[in-house]
Amino acid sequence: MKNLAISFILLFLFCASNSLEAQKYERRQGYWTLGLNAGAAYLYSDIDSEIGGGAGLTLSKNIFYRKGAPFLLDLRGRILYDKTYGQNYFRTYGIDYNPALQAYKVENGGKGYAFENHETEHGELGIEAVIAFNRLREKSRFNLALFGGIGLDAYSVSANQQNSDYQAYDYSLLNPDDDNGSNILSLNQLMDYSYETDIASKVDFMPSVGFEIGYQFLPRFSMGLSHKWTFTKTDLFDGTQWTDNSTLTGDDDVHNYTNLHMRFILQKKKKNKAPTIELITPYDNPHTTDNPLAILKAKIKHIHGAANIHYLVNGEALSFNFSDKVLNSDFYLQEGRNTVDITATNAVGSARERILIFYKTNQPPVVIHNPVVEEDYGAAPRIDITRPVQDPYYSSRSTYKVKANILNVDSRRDVRFFINGRSTQGFSFSYGKVAANVPLEIGRNNIEILVENDYGQDRDEVIIYFEEEETTHCTVEPVVKITSISDPKIDPCAPEDCFVKVKATVKNVESEEDISVFLDGNRIWDFDYSFYQEELTCRLILSEGEHLLRIIARNDIGSDEDREQIIGCNYTPDCIDPKIDITAPTYEHTKVSSINLKATAKEIESKNQISLSLNGRRIHRFDFRPRTGRINANLTLTEGINTIVLKASNDCGEDYDEFQIEYKREVTPTKTPPIVNISSPHNSTETDRSTIALTASIQHVM
Known about the structure:
Blueprint: H1 2-16, H2 20-23, E1 32-44, E2 49-64, E3 71-87, E4 117-133, H3 134-140, E5 142-159, H4 180-190, E6 197-218, E7 221-231, E8 254-266, E9 276-281, E10 287-289, E11 293-301, E12 309-313, E13 316-317, E14 321-323, E15 326-332, E16 336-345, E17 350-359, E18 382-387, E19 393-395, E20 399-407, E21 415-419, E22 422-424, E23 428-430, E24 433-439, E25 443-453, E26 456-466, E27 479-485, E28 489-491, E29 494-507, E30 515-519, E31 522-524, E32 527-530, E33 535-542, E34 546-554, E35 559-567, E36 579-584, E37 589-590, E38 594-602, E39 610-614, E40 617-619, E41 623-625, E42 630-636, E43 640-650, E44 653-663, E45 675-680, E46 695-699
Parallel strand pairs: 10-17, 19-26, 37-44
Antiparallel strand pairs: 1-2, 1-8, 2-3, 3-4, 4-5, 5-6, 6-7, 7-8, 9-11, 11-15, 12-13, 12-16, 14-15, 16-17, 18-20, 20-24, 21-22, 21-25, 23-24, 25-26, 27-29, 28-29, 29-33, 30-31, 30-34, 32-33, 34-35, 36-38, 38-42, 39-40, 39-43, 41-42, 43-44, 45-46
């Protein structure tokens, strides 16, 4: 027992020295617990009990656990082995029916009595339900639990009633008048404790109950004391069931096991998840409102706190509240478009959400005859990552070329490219395509592309796992040969662009990342490569004059390069004059001072090519969208005739449109109260008739 206690202490010290990572353990429902126990075993029985010992193993499965709940429930299996002992230090005369004591009967030459003893070997395979006081443990680290169950128990009882010569002990050598202390000494000298005489053995189901107290030293480790009562359902667990009168005692024996236990929680480390952002308010995105105060709520999961959130409104950091996994913020909107960016990060990855809020003030009606006002409808953007095709994708190269197709986006500024939560500008954008050579980190890499325009936003993402390989796949150097370059042509859809199509044979490479294309020293990312045909194709935009094209391929063995001179187009496209038209308002009279001006402009690339004036005064606050050619402006009129002039100019010429509108302030007529004048009968007139003629005049009544 001493060595067993020392082993327990050493094991505890080992567990107490666990790394700090163990301290971060978070208990979750369904965990397993391995338990070791050892201690004292003894009986409540007909023979005076002496302390024995035992050891066991438990394995439990958590059935119910909630953080903060008052209780938790486990289902536990138990294996136990122990030995119990007993010795009476007084004479027992009820030996007639005890098979181990027949030699002590008078008719068999004995004295008619004996000193009973026993050794009981006991084994148990059981199952138990455990109810633990969870809230007490969470607040104080003290464990308190109650348990009960049933086991399949086997026991074997033997007695020490013969000496080494297999002869019955001569108990007459003991003085019956001596006290127990003297008898103990005498019996110890007389007996050899061989327990050679078998009495009884049996296998049966036995119920048990118990309690535990302990302390949670570490999140995964606890120690404590426990006691278990096993109800044997038999009076032969100690080998005897008779009184001195040879009658049955009628009391079943109870097995006791008091032990020191250690518990180890066995649970896989929780797989951390990347953050998620769920918009609660506003309900739609994009969102349009006429309320200048915006209220935003978003549920953010899998982060530690507000420090993991980056919150921007119109590009500026703004304060917010974060509690119960919900971000709360209110702020005033600027007229028109407002952008709200929420970024949440943790050790696994990041999540981003952009919310568009359009604030439009309520204006009084500006029409007299309800004219039809043109709505500015448009299409939301679309993004689709085309390479890699698989998600997730596994790469053995440290860089990977990601490609995507984009619709309804005209500017590179409306594209945001993220690598593991970090924004990057290292991508190309042309003709509705995005491409980038992405440097990969070992393990998981999150690639996300976000696009937006005035009508909404879209995003697509892919996961790429990078695993280094030590083997070299290529055994020969790469080969590069430019096979064809088309004649330069003018793009009919974009007359300012001159392009050529290039084809090249590239062999002995493992991926597109092994190929580099340069035009006049500038790297070209937008090209396609077929591994099956070992062919590279690309479309190059050229200016006038000569250009140098270089295609380089590399692998672990070496590199190769091919280059060609290309002549650009010398054709200058026809110059087209601009065209500008005022489309709204369509009415010429109004009773309100504010109007919304709408117009369209063609062959115009920027706002600087447009001038707007009202009554000869230059207006700078207006909006121009190059993609649609739409012009919008809010104008404040003066009373009387107002003249609006829009001009547009480019390198080829200019155009203008003019519109006049009369603003006449609505005059509210002065209201006069009605006047009633009774002319007949006169005041205080007396009459003896039941009817009378009344004459009166009424003024200011319609």
